[in-house]
Amino acid sequence: MSKHLELGKKGEEIAMKFLQKKGHEILESNWRHRRSEIDIITKKDGILIFVEVKTRSDDYFGRPESFVTDRKRALMVDAANVYMEQIGHEWEIRFDVIGIIYHNQAHQTIDHFKDAFFPGL
Q1: How far apart are CA 46 and CA 44, in angstroms?
Q2: For the purposes of burial, counting CB atoms within 10 Å of the CB of 42, is it exposed (0-12), middle (13-18) or buried (19 or more)?
Q3: CA–CA dist 77, 7 (Å, integer)
Q4: What is the pLDDT of residues 77-118, one digit of tens each?
């Protein structure tokens, strides 16, 4: 596996542990629909939450969360709509972004952006 894919996988594992500690129930990880992928789908306090995780080894080229493009947001919204239809979801949703700078195994910087974007905006 390439180095950046390994880093991304580590970041997703860190994000899931982080969310679980915050009381989130992990429903899915790496959920796919066609060309879209949602890194983590959780539920907390009755809210269905779709999470994009961005991991970098440093912030030299910018903060990890700044790499969530408009295209990625649109793909996430499309996939989220399919997921909600499949499970018969009719309650509140949210789109979050978690940015991680992975310094080493013992030290990471984690930023959790709740309601990072809204569908259609």
Answers
A1: 5
A2: buried
A3: 25
A4: 999 999 999 999 888 999 999 999 988 788 889 999 999 988
Bridge partner list, 112: 98
Domains and CATH numbers, the chain: 3-117 (3.40.1350.10)
CA distance 121 to 6: 32
**What is the DSSP secondary-structure string of 48-83?**
EEEEEEEEES--TT--GGGG--HHHHHHHHHHHHHH
| 9, 55 Cβ separation under 8 angstroms | no
Tokens representing residue 52 in the block: 């994009």
**What's the rounded Cα separation, in Å, for the pair 101 and 86?**
34
